[in-house]
Structures are given as structure tokens and as C-alpha cells.
Specification:
alpha/beta; five-stranded mixed sheet; 3 domains; 13 helices
């Protein structure tokens, strides 16, 4: 009995594995505990292993690759069609085993520890940015209940809050003043955390050659460049620049039938964070191009034919292909 392909359904404590031989016949159905995973695959002959790209998948992919196995990660949405009848761990492992053997399956590149580390910094920064925005909106909403309206923007709060707290004629109770002071201090702390994490990202960017090359593209700065390098890696999983743009969700969705082509809005598939960074960078280029770019340039001609938002997505698509 020689196992050629194994599908692993990942979990926190119990892992379900499903293995088939060279004829596709199921020869292995087993449940392993986390502590037994490394020992079991270390004593197994090298084979093809498939897993869904989910929590801890990159760690196990690196770990099992050290034992000589060929590990492939797949998006869960591509595995789901292979699940038969009811969903449970055994059915999921069998579906993963079948999906990884498909010749036209799309795989997710395995990230190394350095990529995961800088992406963790990006995720932490993104979380602080969202929390900072929510905190500023909460402060503005609470003040509006007392008839005090502050313009949108964190800087407006930072600038006007000292005057509001010191103004004795705005009828704010002492309890409310203490609360606003506490919320403002928390807002300042989150703003400081965002700045410090950005400095770490910029420092990593300056030490990475590939990230520095991407910064030369108009509309891509240190944040976007480092995120792309950490997420995509060497981009060997993509056959062309168009595939990368499609993976980021920057191409139209299709609903075509009977030879009639029907293109819709962008698909918004793939990594939302990367797509957002590329589009925001494209908006900055468009603001610059409105007054300073050459009238006969590609971007200026595009802006005369369509909306700025459409032009921003088109430029983001172009930048993704250049990347």
C-alpha cells in the first residue's frame, strides 16, 4: 500500500486525514491529535499533501515540507464543490484529497515566517486604524447629543477637544468632561500605535529589495509595496500579470452565456486589503494627474471618458499587472 495523495482537514486539536493510492482508491482514513501530526508525517513516505488555506495552514505546510512532502494550499471555495452530501471532517478531508489532484486547481503560495511576521504588523496596524476611526466617530456622536458638532476627521477632534473641555459655557457636566478626556487620551494612544507600526513597516520595506522596486511604480508606497511582497511572495503561482490582477479582484465579473458576453463590476475577489491599498494609491495619482499630467497621456484620456472611480480601478489594475 503506497499512499500518493493525502488531504488534511485542519483544526485546533484534532486533524482528519484522507489518503489514496496511485489508482485513487481510499487506503487511509484517520484522525490525529496535534501532538502526533509531526511524528506521523515524519515516518511517512513523501507524497502530495493538500490543505485548505486557513488558520495555521502555512505553519503546517512549512513543517510537512521539511519531511520531504509536496504541500499544496487551496482556497476553501475551490474545495467546497468536491464535498459530497453532508459536511463533516471525513467528508472535508476526502474533498481536499480529491481537489488537490485536479490538474487545473489553483493553489495559494506558501508564506515563510518573515512574510507572516510583516503581514501581522499590517493586520495590527489595520486594526488600530479601524478602532481609531470608530473611537473618533463615537466622540463626535456623544458631543452631538450635547449640541456640539465637530467636523469629520481625527485632526479636528485633536484640535478642538482642549477648547471644548476648557469651555465652561457649553453646559457639559463634569462626568461627561471626564469621559471625553478619557476617550481623547485613548484616541491619541491608538494614533501613536499606528505611527509606530508604520515606522516598522517602512524599516522592513527599506531592507527588502523587491519592496523597494515596487515603490518606483506611481501609486505604490512603502505600505502597499511591503504588503504585496509579503502576500504574493515571488508570484510563481501566477502565469501572467493579468492573473495577479484577477486574483486581486480588479477585473470585471462575467455573466455570459450563449456566446453573448456580459461584463459587470469588478469581482472583488482575493485579498481585500491589497485591493484597497492599490485603489487608494491610484486615487492619489489621479489627483496629481488632474493638473500636472500630460493631456495626451493614457490616464488623462481615460479620465475624460469615464468616472474618476472607474479610472482609479483601471489604474490599480494596470499597477497590479506591472507588479
Amino acid at each position: 500500500m503506497k499512499i500518493t495523495i493525502i488531504g488534511i482537514d485542519l483544526a485546533k486539536s484534532l486533524f482528519q486525514i484522507h489518503g489514496v493510492d496511485e489508482r485513487g482508491k481510499a487506503v487511509l482514513r484517520r484522525q490525529l491529535k496535534r501532538k502526533d501530526m509531526a511524528k506521523y508525517f515524519a515516518n511517512l513516505e513523501p507524497c502530495l499533501i493538500g490543505m485548505e488555506a486557513c488558520g495555521s495552514s502555512h505553519h503546517w505546510a512549512r513543517k510537512l515540507s521539511e519531511f520531504g512532502h509536496t504541500v499544496k494550499l487551496m482556497s476553501p471555495q475551490f474545495v467546497k464543490p468536491y464535498v459530497k452530501t453532508n459536511k463533516h471532517d471525513m467528508a472535508d478531508a476526502e474533498a481536499i484529497c480529491e481537489a488537490v489532484s485536479r490538474p487545473n486547481m489553483r493553489f495559494v503560495p506558501i508564506k515563510n515566517v518573515e512574510q507572516q511576521a510583516i503581514l501581522s504588523v499590517h493586520r495590527a496596524r489595520q486594526g488600530f486604524v479601524k478602532a481609531r476611526t470608530a473611537q473618533s466617530n463615537q466622540i463626535r456622536g456623544l458631543l452631538s447629543e450635547f449640541g456640539i458638532v465637530i467636523p469629520q476627521g481625527i485632526q479636528s477632534i485633536m484640535k478642538q477637544m482642549p477648547e471644548i473641555l476648557e469651555d465652561g459655557e457649553n453646559d457639559l457636566p463634569g462626568l461627561m468632561r471626564n469621559l471625553l478626556k478619557r476617550l481623547t487620551e485613548n484616541l491619541k494612544e491608538m494614533d501613536r500605535q499606528v505611527d509606530e507600526l508604520e515606522k516598522q513597516i517602512v524599516l522592513w520595506h527599506r531592507e527588502n529589495e523587491a519592496s523597494r522596486k515596487l515603490e518606483e511604480i506611481p501609486g505604490i508606497g512603502p505600505i502597499t509595496a511591503s504588503a504585496i511582497v509579503a502576500t504574493v511572495g515571488k508570484a510563481k503561482e501566477f502565469k501572467s500579470g493579468r492573473q495577479l490582477a484577477a486574483w486581486m479582484g480588479l477585473v470585471p465579473r462575467q455573466h455570459s452565456s450563449g456566446g453573448k458576453q456580459n461584463l459587470l463590476g469588478i469581482s472583488k475577489r482575493g485579498d481585500t486589503y491589497l485591493r484597497t491599498l492599490l485603489i487608494h494609491g491610484a486615487r492619489a495619482v489621479i489627483r496629481f494627474a488632474e493638473n500636472r499630467a500630460e493631456p495626451e497621456g493614457w490616464l488623462r484620456k481615460l479620465m475624460t471618458r469615464c468616472n474618476k472611480n472607474v479610472a482609479a480601478v483601471a489604474l490599480a489594475n494596470k499597477n497590479a499587472r506591472i507588479v
